[in-house]
């Protein structure tokens, strides 16, 4: 399963994106459970953010949802943080 | 100050809640939890509504004369999120308390003070709502957090990851930028998307830059016109995050990429990302302000800044204003404040012409 996160906006207005492919990973099931929960709580269209807040696009298995700071669920926050840190 | 331009005791935007936000805010700080709890929840809900820009039915009415004139002293509180994401976090410094060991807390406190002073001394504005609203800031938000934002009721600052950005309290213009989002929210309330969103961003860059220049006593010619010059980590190739003098030249880095800001309408960027490019296309009104301010010379807040402030707070700028609407109002404000025959309105008119914004 491919998990892609794109972050836009923020004070700097600089875009970042990263992807994690869970296939073959020993922790694939944990990633997938986290991703599914994050997507389940996502918005179907871009929510208007707060001034300078980050906006996110989370794509899991071809399905894209949206979220914005500071109103992220804990799962969304963890997924975004881990994908941007560990993903390529 | 032009009569009718003040925001306290005169015309003031009031949101469609029964209790005005500044009153709720006082109640929210009450020692009685039965009072403060509901008021606080209302404020949070209101600010969320405002930030989501779902409130479109704003109306204006004459505010009742304030029972007591707002203080000329700020009411600052700095909180520490302890690298978590719960706001506001633990109170670490209140108004009048001595500086502690944490330089981030001290910078935030000083930055709030500098911003309060600029708006009061230059424009006669008491805090961000014009009525002495307490100024709250949270530092050390989240881990390695590369951002700062205004959540509708307070400022939030990350520490940066140390690789791309350092502590977001490092640049005073960033602190001024966030607080100005509050001023905009309480005045023109520009919708945070597309052109009105880029104007909202530009207001924050303009007054953020002016607060820095005011603090350093710099003239328009002496100023660097950079936003976030102290924010870039040592290894990043660049001078700042944005340049009002020369948009598109602030940075060009392997990791960050290249500064995407246009200086003129020819290079306006159409995109759905970044709330419709609010941090990108703000380069155009930013550059117009720079051109007007440097053409007029002297301290930029005295003429160009005053004109921009008059438009932001004057009541004619609509939530969904485009660049051309804003430009037209700045020319009008320049005439009203400095006279019809003056160099001021000509400098403003010429600045918009040079960035390709037509005044219809």
What does this structure look like?
Chain A: It holds the Pfam family Emfourin. Chain A: This is Metalloprotease. Chain A: It comes from Streptomyces phaeoluteigriseus. The complex is a heterodimer of chains A (88) and B (360). Chain A is an alpha+beta fold. Chain A has one domain. Chain A has a four-stranded antiparallel beta sheet with strand order 2-1-3-4, covered by helices on one side. In chain A, strand 3 and strand 4 form a beta hairpin. In chain A, helix 1 packs across helix 2. The relative contact order of chain A is 0.28. Chain B has 360 residues and is an alpha+beta fold. Chain B has ten helices and eleven strands. Chain B is globular, with a radius of gyration of 20 Å. Chains A and B meet through loops of A and helix 2, strand 6, helix 4, helix 5 and helix 6 of B.
Give the percentage of residues in beta strands of chain A.
25-35%
CATH topology of the largest domain in chain B: Neutral Protease, domain 2
Query: What string, H for helix and E for strand, traces the elements of chain B in order?
Result: EHHEEEHEEEHHEEEEHHHHH
Structural class of chain A: alpha+beta
Short description:
Chain A is of the alpha+beta class. Chain A has helices at residues 28-40, 74-86, and strands spanning 2-9, 16-21, 54-60, 63-68.
What's the helix and strand layout?
The complex is a heterodimer of chains A (88) and B (360).
Chain A (H helix, E strand, L loop, with lengths): L1 E8 L6 E6 L6 H13 L13 E7 L2 E6 L5 H13 L2
Antiparallel strand pairs in A: 1-2, 1-3, 3-4
Helix pairs in contact in A: 1-2
Chain B lengths: L10 E4 L6 H8 L4 H20 L6 E4 L13 E5 L9 E5 L8 H21 L11 E7 L6 E3 L4 E4 L13 H15 L7 H23 L9 E2 L14 E2 L8 E2 L3 E2 L14 H9 L1 H14 L4 H13 L9 H16 L4 H12 L6
């Amino acid at each position: 399963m491919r998990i892609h996160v794109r972050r836009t906006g923020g004070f700097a207005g600089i875009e970042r994106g990263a992807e994690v492919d869970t296939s073959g990973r020993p922790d694939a099931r944990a990633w997938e459970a986290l991703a599914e929960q994050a997507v389940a709580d996502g918005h179907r269209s871009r929510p208007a953010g707060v001034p300078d807040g980050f906006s996110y696009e989370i794509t899991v298995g071809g399905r894209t949802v949206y979220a914005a700071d500071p109103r992220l669920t804990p799962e969304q926050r963890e997924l975004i943080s881990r994908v941007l840190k560990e993903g390529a | 100050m032009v009569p009718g331009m003040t925001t306290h005791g005169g015309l003031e935007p009031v949101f469609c809640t029964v209790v005005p936000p500044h009153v709720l805010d006082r109640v929210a700080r009450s020692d009685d939890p039965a009072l403060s709890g509901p008021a606080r929840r209302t404020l949070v809900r209101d600010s969320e509504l405002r930030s989501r820009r779902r409130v479109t039915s704003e109306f204006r009415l004459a505010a009742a004369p304030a029972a007591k004139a707002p203080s000329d002293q700020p009411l600052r509180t700095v909180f520490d999120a302890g690298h978590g994401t719960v706001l506001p976090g633990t109170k670490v410094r209140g108004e009048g308390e001595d500086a502690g060991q944490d330089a981030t807390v001290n910078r935030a406190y000083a930055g709030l003070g500098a911003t309060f002073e600029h708006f009061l001394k230059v424009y006669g504005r008491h805090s961000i709502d014009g009525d002495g609203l307490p100024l709250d800031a949270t530092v050390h938000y989240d881990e390695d957090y590369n951002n700062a934002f205004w959540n509708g009721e307070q400022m939030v600052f990350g520490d940066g990851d140390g690789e791309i950005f350092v502590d977001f309290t490092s640049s005073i213009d960033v602190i001024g930028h966030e607080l100005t989002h509050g001023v905009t929210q309480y005045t023109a309330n520009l919708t945070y998307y597309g052109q009105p969103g880029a104007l909202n961003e530009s207001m924050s860059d303009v007054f953020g830059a002016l607060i820095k220049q005011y603090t350093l006593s710099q003239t328009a010619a002496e100023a660097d016109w950079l936003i976030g010059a102290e924010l870039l980590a040592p290894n990043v190739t660049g001078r700042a995050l944005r340049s009002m003098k020369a948009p598109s030249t602030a940075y060009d880095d392997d990791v960050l990429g290249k500064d995407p800001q246009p200086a003129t309408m020819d290079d306006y960027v159409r995109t759905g990302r970044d709330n419709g490019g609010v941090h990108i296309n703000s380069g155009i009104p930013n550059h117009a302000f720079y051109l007007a301010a440097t053409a007029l010379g002297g301290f930029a807040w005295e003429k160009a800044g005053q004109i921009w402030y008059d438009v932001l707070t004057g009541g004619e700028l609509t939530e969904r204003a485009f660049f051309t609407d804003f430009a037209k109002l700045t020319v009008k404000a320049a005439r009203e404040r400095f006279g019809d025959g003056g160099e001021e309105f000509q400098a403003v008119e010429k600045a918009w012409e040079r960035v390709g914004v037509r005044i219809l």
